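Tutorial, part two.
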Amino acid sequence: MTKVILVRHGQTLWNVDCRYQGQSDVSLNETGLKQARLLAARLLGEDVAAIYASDLGRAKMTAEEIAKRHNLAVSIVPELREISFGEWEGMTFGEIDEKWPGLMSRIFKQPDTVEIPGGETYQAVQQRATQAIDKLVKKHPEETIIVVSHGATIRTILCAALEVPLTSVWRIRQDNTAVNVIEYSADNWASVALINDIHHLKER
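Running the prediction step on this input gives:
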């Protein structure tokens, strides 16, 4: 089995302000850096073959904190980046709802039917993200790897692993620096062992 430790990046100022980040390159704030260090300490005991991250700064910064503890370099995989929220990026939930009435409620209840203005569909995100994971699994048979990505992207990967429809994507919680574990067999059969574990934050 290949063990994929799939983690979300640490907190950013836009997370605090409830602004849609998407593919805007927002850095970790001080809390996010602290979270990343606590995450790195938690994962220190793992026998890790490689560490991968999205090309967005908040994911790279989180991955670099982990990589320091393992004396590994971070390999960048652009396909792991967050969903593009197009015209919504930088806006709050309320601002989006005011400009596009009703669309915000649909994105939580029927995300697979929403076309984000100027952005991506959840189907497109799931396709590129799962293809990237498949390649990494094939590259690391019988090894453990860490993959640092983003909330929506991770949710689509988990939906694929659990074989549940994308209508359920927002039923899967993903807090900052949440740890998820998926184990993949040689024939790519997935077993989800852990979802949204943040005990490394609560024990400090």
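The CA atoms of residues 7 and 179 lie 5 Å apart. In part three we will examine how such features are distributed along the chain.
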